[in-house]
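A reminder from the course coordinator: this example appears on the midterm review sheet, so study it carefully.

Given structure:
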């Protein structure tokens, strides 16, 4: 009975309509990878669509020395099975275009019944992770719920160590610099230094893993009623690109990058 209820919840989430009116209808003519497609007719002056809010396993796509991420061909095929040659509608919930001139849209496959939400279905299948930006935060809560369910079930990428949630071990994370990671741990100390808050996961801020939030990000946290400077001792899950400043660091630019695990 419980599994049946979970299946129903997943189905309803996958077809969840976005909170914006469709702005364009087209046919998907080509699949680039697991989160990028081409459409016809174009929307305004462009026909390349980036599925906003998710990150599928990456293919090299002509980039020198760029490795194929595990399950990247499978993610591309999953998206092709879902949308290639089919009519889709585009909706926008934030910034509409990226620096590569791709349209940043939510896609729904149209047809009989309620349209299928493509981002939700890719997450449900375990063929993508949530990947949000401060100017594109629409529906991230719903997408995080889909990701959590797929991860709990061990679907797709969540069955592979390559995509496993990391712990905040600084030595191990230094081997992952320049990669996108999801990390879980308990904050040892939250400190405000001038206009920046640092979440330290060890007693040595010069070498341990840290999450930083600058003033512009803190304003977004404040609007949602959150004050990261009070999070000492809290357990969190944070996602982002790992860089090095003293020890390994993720720069959080908006609240959806961090999930509080001990509410």
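Designed residues:
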């Amino acid at each position: 009975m419980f599994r049946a209820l979970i299946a129903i919840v997943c189905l309803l989430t996958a077809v969840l309509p976005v909170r914006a009116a469709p702005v364009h209808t087209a046919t998907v003519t080509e699949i680039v990878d697991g989160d990028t497609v081409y459409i016809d007719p174009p929307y305004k002056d462009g026909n390349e669509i980036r599925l906003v809010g998710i990150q599928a396993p990456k293919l090299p796509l002509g980039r020198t020395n760029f490795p194929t991420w595990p399950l990247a061909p499978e993610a591309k095929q999953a998206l092709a099975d879902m949308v290639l040659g089919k009519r889709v509608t585009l909706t926008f919930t934030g910034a509409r275009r990226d620096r590569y001139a791709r349209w940043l849209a939510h896609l729904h496959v149209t047809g009989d019944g309620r349209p299928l939400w493509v981002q939700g279905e890719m997450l449900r299948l375990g063929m993508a992770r949530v990947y949000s930006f401060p100017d594109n935060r629409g529906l991230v809560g719903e997408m995080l719920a889909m990701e959590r369910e797929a991860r709990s079930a061990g679907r797709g990428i969540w069955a592979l160590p390559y995509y496993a949630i990391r712990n905040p071990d600084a030595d191990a994370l230094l081997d992952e610099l320049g990669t996108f990671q999801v990390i879980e741990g308990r904050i040892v100390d939250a400190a405000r230094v001038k206009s920046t808050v640092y979440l330290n996961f060890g007693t040595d801020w010069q070498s341990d893993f840290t999450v930083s939030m600058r003033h512009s990000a803190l304003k977004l946290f404040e609007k949602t009623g959150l004050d990261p400077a009070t999070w000492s001792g809290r357990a969190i899950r944070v996602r982002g690109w790992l860089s090095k400043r003293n020890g390994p660091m993720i720069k959080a630019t908006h609240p959806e990058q961090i999930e509080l695990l001990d509410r």
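The chain is about 25% helix and 30% strand. Confidence is low (pLDDT under 50) at residues 1-13.
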